[in-house]
Design a protein that fits this description.
The chain is mainly α and about 300 residues long. It has 15 helices and three strands. The protein has helices spanning about 5-15, 25-35, 40-60, 65-70, 75-80, 90-105, 130-140, 145-160, 165, 200-210, 230-235, 245-260, 265-270, 280, 290-295, and strands at about 175-180, 180-185, 190-195. A three-stranded antiparallel beta sheet has the order 1-2-3, sandwiched between helices. It starts with 5 loop residues before the first helix and ends with a helix.
């Protein structure tokens, strides 16, 4: 006989008897899980554990042992906050999932499932040949001003990860040689100093010297939204090249930085596939000196 037959599941439910649980609580948990009709004995045990813990908490705080009262979101969240202090975060998340599953299985009018929302993915970086193609297009523009500004758009995006909203605020004087490399002092809400990757030093310094204290992308009012539109259009005139996009230029810079710091090797060695927790770890580390950043991402000495 298969272990997952209804009879095997019923025996699992009937034989469940954890220590420290009252008979009334145990009867309630068994009845609750039996009504949910779990598909395997293992699933039945998981639901029994969750139901018995919730019922024990309800008994301790004076709540009525009824599915309608205990399986509502407010009671489940109160139980997780007040009745699971000794459990690990992973166990608490599992309890929440199982209790919500019980609520959905027993609800006569269950809540609709959350609509899956699309996750924004990083744009594909450009290849080195494509970046060279954009720089050649920039060098072929009819005027010196257009040549300098187009070069700056490519170098600031692919060489320093500057997005277009920040690009319109940059002046030529914000690009400086420092610590043996080239650094961009980005103004605005996310003000910071960004070392420029070495391959973009020459054309970016030339564009910065041409702009001086004027805006490096041109224009006189940084609030104007279409400052870079003409420059981007000029760099999209070659049908052999993909369309120039600010997001892809930034991805190109991010990809180059990830290679420089050995990010892929580190994540592979650590068995990490998602970097969400790495931000918590990095927040505890001391801030690097500018000389270290420049040396890693583009210093020349």
């Amino acid at each position: 006989m298969s272990r997952s037959t209804p009879a095997a599941i019923a025996r699992t439910i009937a034989s469940y008897r954890p220590r420290g649980v009252s008979d009334e609580t145990l009867t309630f948990a068994r009845a609750l899980v039996a009504r949910a009709e779990p598909g395997t004995p293992e699933r039945a045990k998981a639901l029994l554990f969750a139901a018995s813990r919730l019922a024990s908490f309800a008994e301790a705080v004076g709540l009525c042992l009824s599915p309608e009262e205990l399986l509502c979101e407010a009671v489940i969240e109160r139980f997780l906050l007040q009745g699971t202090a000794a459990l690990s975060p992973a166990s608490r998340r599992t309890l929440r999932s199982n209790l919500r599953a019980l609520g959905r299985a027993l609800g006569s009018h269950p809540q609709p499932l959350p609509v899956p929302l699309g996750r924004e993915r990083a744009k594909a970086p450009y290849s080195e040949a494509e970046i060279e193609g954009f720089l050649r297009l920039a060098a072929c523009q009819p005027t010196e001003a257009r040549r300098m500004r187009c070069s700056a758009v490519v170098c600031l995006g692919a060489g320093a990860g500057i997005v277009q909203g920040e690009l319109r605020l940059l002046r030529g004087s914000d690009v400086v040689e420092r610590c043996g490399g080239v650094v961009v002092a980005v103004p605005g809400k996310r003000a910071r100093a960004v070392p420029v990757l070495r391959r973009h030093h020459g054309p970016l310094l030339a564009a910065a010297a041409f702009a001086g204290r004027s805006f490096i992308a041109g224009g006189e009012d940084p609030a104007r939204r279409n400052i870079t539109d003409a420059l981007v259009s000029a760099l999209c005139s070659d049908p052999s090249l993909p369309r120039l996009e600010g997001g892809r230029l930034r991805s190109t810079w991010l990809s180059a930085c990830a290679r420089a710091i050995g990010r892929q090797a580190f994540m592979a060695a650590a068995g990490v596939v998602c970097s969400q927790r790495l931000g918590d770890i990095v927040a505890t580390l001391p801030l690097p000196e500018m000389t270290e950043m420049v040396a890693l991402l583009g210093g020349s000495r």
